[in-house]
């Protein structure tokens, strides 16, 4: 099926910019590249932060488990003492 208007009025060799003026298309591409790089750096920062949070959570869970164990042993010790 042929779509009406495709390729009509576009000089040969300008199919890559879809009929946009070279300067306008270039400006859009430059802005897209700039925004893409900005997004890439933000995603990288968020990824690093989430990895650091994961390490911190593991450390805190380990400390909580140790505290739980110590409280259990202290409770057992206090239960054996006569009052």
UniProtKB/TrEMBL annotation:
All copies of domain T-SNARE coiled-coil homology, residue ranges: 26-75
Keyword Lyase attributed: no
GO biological process, one term: vesicle-mediated transport
Membrane topology, from the record: Single-pass type IV membrane protein
Function: Required for vesicular transport from the ER to the Golgi complex. Functions as a SNARE involved in the docking process of ER-derived vesicles with the cis-Golgi membrane.
GO cellular component: endoplasmic reticulum membrane; Golgi apparatus
Subcellular location: Endoplasmic reticulum membrane; Golgi apparatus, cis-Golgi network membrane
PANTHER family named among the record's database cross-references: GOLGI SNARE BET1-RELATED
Record-given protein name: BET1 homolog
CDD domains xrefs: SNARE_Bet1
InterPro entries given in the database record: BET1_SNARE (IPR039899), T_SNARE_dom (IPR000727)
Main location: endoplasmic reticulum
Assembly behavior: Interacts with SNARE complex members GOSR2, SEC22B and STX5. Interacts with LMAN1/ERGIC53. Interacts with STX17.
Family: Belongs to the BET1 family.
Keywords attached to this entry: Coiled coil, Endoplasmic reticulum, ER-Golgi transport, Golgi apparatus, Membrane, Phosphoprotein, Protein transport, Transmembrane, Transmembrane helix, Transport
Protein source organism: Pongo abelii (Sumatran orangutan)
């Amino acid at each position: 099926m042929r779509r009406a208007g495709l390729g009509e009025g576009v000089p040969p060799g300008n199919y890559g910019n879809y009929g946009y003026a070279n300067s306008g298309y270039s400006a859009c591409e430059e802005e897209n590249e700039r925004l893409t790089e900005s997004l890439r750096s933000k995603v990288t920062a968020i990824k690093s932060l989430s990895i650091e949070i994961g390490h911190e959570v593991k450390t805190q869970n380990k400390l909580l488990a140790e505290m739980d164990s110590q409280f259990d042993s202290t409770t057992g010790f206090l239960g054996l003492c006569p009052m």
